[in-house]
């Protein structure tokens, strides 16, 4: 019995020792967590001071080059192609013959129309002479004049149709596509050629509404092509849309004179570099784009005062490269967070990273 009591006492002592150890470990962990929590009670951020001043307002917009003129030629008459005088890549001038469609029937139509016209001329002359001697009525004279006018119109139409059998270029340019061969049978509307004029090109881009007051028709613009990164082409604004698209961006067209080697091609990717000099290009209040929480359109930034970060609603204006114009919500001299916002909440304590 005495031996059994000793075992019970020993077990109780072991249990008490284990409990005391666990309690000490818990207290130690809580102390360590408190120390860590104290160390991490502030969020490390980078800051900047709001100021008004002159900044570089250059901005860029991207688009694709398009030819200044582009025409698709279609057949006006039915017939068989007898000659094709140009190939894809050929340089053509206005009035140059591109192809000839067989015009035997059209020539016959012209001959018949000319004969009918000459006969109508003779009839009208005879009726006019006869009217002077009382041989015909005034109504018959008038009818002969109407017949003469109709015969003239038919002759003109026959000549036009015969002329349409010879396909001529109506713009200066390059044959981009040739869709017929000698012997091809065509009908009205059949596409024959595609011509493009790349001596001048257009670069179509879109510009945010905030930049529009700084742009004017005729403004010079530097243009670069992605395939020629070291070359700069001279452009000029020729069109500014009167209406914005759904994204509140305005379509702009820039005309560029190609160089003598015609290195620029329609469809290439291009970048316009705008250098605004108009109204509103003076000193402005702007902050870094990285200052915004959730993007520029959200219009929210953290302002730091007494080592505390406070969320504030601001009114952003133009995006000027890495800077964003501030139209309201901030004053010069205020401190804003430019980095570290992801860890911030409204009212959090901050420590400044130099």
From TrEMBL:
Q: Which GO terms label this protein's molecular function in UniProt?
A: efflux transmembrane transporter activity
Domain CzcB-like barrel-sandwich hybrid per the UniProt entry, residue ranges: 75-196
Where are its TM segments located? none
Q: Which residues form a coiled coil?
A: 141-168
- Gene3D superfamilies according to UniProt: 2.40.30.170, 2.40.420.20, 2.40.50.100, Helix hairpin bin
Q: Which residues form the YknX-like C-terminal permuted SH3-like domain?
A: 300-351
The protein's matches in InterPro entries, at most eight in alphabetical order, are given as: Beta-barrel_RND_2, BSH_CzcB-like, RND_pump_MFP, YknX-like_C
Q: Which superkingdom?
A: Bacteria
Alphabetized, the UniProt keywords read: Coiled coil
Domain CusB-like beta-barrel as annotated: residue spans: 203-276
Which Pfam families does the UniProt record give? Beta-barrel_RND_2 (PF25954), BSH_CzcB (PF25973), YknX_C (PF25989)
* A GO cellular component annotation in the UniProt record: efflux pump complex
What family does the entry list? Belongs to the membrane fusion protein (MFP) (TC 8.A.1) family.
Q: What protein name does the entry list?
A: RND family efflux transporter, MFP subunit
Q: Which organism is it from?
A: Flavobacterium caeni
List the lineage, top down. Answer: Bacteria, Pseudomonadati, Bacteroidota, Flavobacteriia, Flavobacteriales
